[in-house]
Automatic annotation (TrEMBL):
It comes from Pandoraea morbifera. Pfam families: SBP_bac_11. Molybdate binds at S47, S74, A159, V186, Y204. This is Molybdate-binding periplasmic ABC transporter. SUPFAM superfamilies: Periplasmic binding protein-like II. InterPro entries: ModA, ModA/WtpA. One of its GO terms (biological process) is molybdate ion transport. Belongs to the bacterial solute-binding protein ModA family.
Length: 267
């Protein structure tokens, strides 16, 4: 059984209520399995869903043990662990939220590893044409027109933080920030573009690869933002007998090959 936090956002007052409901749902998803000590409970960045679902199925076939997967924004997951949500393994989409978990003594620091890398891209609905040259002074504001730019909330979602940094480096953030549709996690931003609710969005390359309804309209220069690194660690509260084998499995050559097939890179 898997718990997944994925939903569409609207641009009016009920959105705040939806965000609170999603947070409660994610916490509840973790607590649902609190009594199942035999299951590895993995809290992972939403952008990892497709690859990690695949790897979880492979692990279950090999071992007979089925990990419980909870997806969401790295910021939300780290705060849930801090509040006591049961997690054995935490995978963040950036270093900052793993740093947060380490600072608050939530992880076994000796287990921390850099697991994966990724790229940041601009997406548009697959039914559209034309690319955006993502260089200094890019005309993204004109491309958006009266439309919204879907991206993870730049206040705390890693993909949003990377996106804001890249747009600032290109000198266009001040022009487009008023058009941002801030999503609870990167997969919500992806859905907004896939459903045609936003003409452009900023997501990871792996997200774009996973959704046939969008296309990559541009790739942000690697030097426009900090390197996108996914660190992984075992939590302090983990059932190590169950968590350690899956933790090691994630770093195996076979698992790394699967991650790369979905578009992730080595860190």
């Amino acid at each position: 059984m898997k718990a997944v936090v994925i939903a569409s956002l609207k641009f009016h007052a009920p959105a705040a209520m939806l965000r609170r409901a999603l947070t409660v749902a994610a916490v509840g998803a973790g607590l649902l399995f609190a009594g199942h000590a035999a299951a590895q409970q993995v809290f992972a960045a939403a952008s990892m869903k497709d690859a990690l679902d695949d790897l979880s199925a492979a692990y279950t076939r090999e071992t007979g043990k089925k990990p419980v997967l909870v997806y969401g924004a790295s910021s939300t997951l780290a705060r849930q662990i801090e509040k006591g949500a049961p997690a054995d393994v935490f995978i963040s989409a950036d270093q900052d939220w793993m740093d947060y978990a380490q600072k608050h003594d939530l992880i076994d620091t000796s287990s921390r590893r850099n697991l994966l890398g990724n790229e940041l891209v601009l997406i548009a609905p697959a039914t559209t044409t034309g690319d955006v040259d993502l260089k200094t002074g890019a005309d993204l504001d004109a491309k958006l027109g009266s439309g919204r730019l879907a991206m993870g909330d730049p206040a705390h979602v890693p993909a949003g933080l990377y996106g804001k940094a890249a747009l600032e480096k290109l000198g266009v953030w001040s022009k487009v920030q008023g058009k941002v549709a801030a999503a609870d996690n990167v997969r919500n931003a992806l859905l907004l573009v896939a459903r045609g609710e936003a003409p452009y969005g900023i997501v990871y390359k792996t997200d774009a690869n996973a959704e046939k309804r969008v296309r990559i309209a541009g790739t942000f220069p690697a030097d426009s933002h900090a390197p996108i690194i996914y660190p992984v660690a075992v939590t302090k509260q983990a059932n190590r007998a169950e968590a350690d084998p899956f933790f090691k499995f994630l770093q195996s050559p076979a698992a790394q090959a699967t991650f790369q097939r979905y578009g992730f890179s080595r860190p």
